[in-house]
Sequence to fold (139 residues):
Amino acid sequence: MKAGKKNVLSELKAAIGKQIKPPPAPAAPPKDADKTATPEMKGAAHALPEAKVAPALKTPLRSGRGVQFYLDDRDRKLITNLAVWLGSQDRRVSDSQVIKAAIRFASINPNARLLEICDEVRASDRRRHARKPKRSAEK
Fold:
């Protein structure tokens, strides 16, 4: 058994080490193409066939950009709880989608409660400290 596993392992290592070959180049146009050219075209430079252009996408494949949020355990738990609730409503969403939905909901329905929550968040943010006044140098 062990000899078989070693053999499979060595085959996998060999397969990983192989380099991937690029796809073959497109085939050259048939040689009979010159026979169909008119005498005027033989002396003039031939125009290249028009390249087929893929239609432009209406929306870019990736429209957002990565951002970093500093969340404490309480906030992570809230996001998870919202994701679970949305799951119970037959909506499978990621944490990012939960945050987007909450932000959009808050932007539609701004009220005094949102201001209170914002004040609570600012008060619990450890990066916000009251700055101490600088002491003047004593002689």
